[in-house]
Amino acid sequence: EIGIGLTGFGVFFLFFGMILFFDKALLAIGNVLFVAGLSFVIGLERTFRFFFQKHKMKATGFFLGGVLIVLIGWPLIGMILEIYGFFLLFRGFFPVVVGFIRRIPVLGYLLNLPGISSLVDKVGESNNMV
């Protein structure tokens, strides 16, 4: 429960920090809360094993490098690196998420609209196993 709360607050602070023109303090708090919450949810050892797998080192470097750059004080560059690293790290989960969202009544209808459907299909297809 604590981990889910920390992760939720982390995502909230990250979102709020981006809305307020990349506020350094909010983004730094959001990053720390997100990583701490993830560690509480799945455990320290599993978090370490997830981030430091051999085939995910590039993604981990971008993600944690982005966190470090945000903490240093360059929020825009840090968030760009973080988002890229996030998509590289979690791209194996996207097909599952897209499949789940397509089953939700209103969101599924929106994802099946002609212009959006092809974009979602590209995001949802993945040959990489997690």
UniProtKB/TrEMBL annotation:
May be involved in fusion of ER-derived transport vesicles with the Golgi complex. Belongs to the GOT1 family. The chain crosses the membrane at residues 5-22, 28-48, 60-77. The keyword Zinc does not apply. This is GOT1B protein. Pfam families: Got1. Its main location: Golgi. It is found in: Golgi apparatus membrane. The keyword Transmembrane helix applies. Keywords: Golgi apparatus, Membrane, Transmembrane, Transmembrane helix. PANTHER family: CGI-141-RELATED/LIPASE CONTAINING PROTEIN (PTHR21493), VESICLE TRANSPORT PROTEIN GOT1B (PTHR21493:SF79).
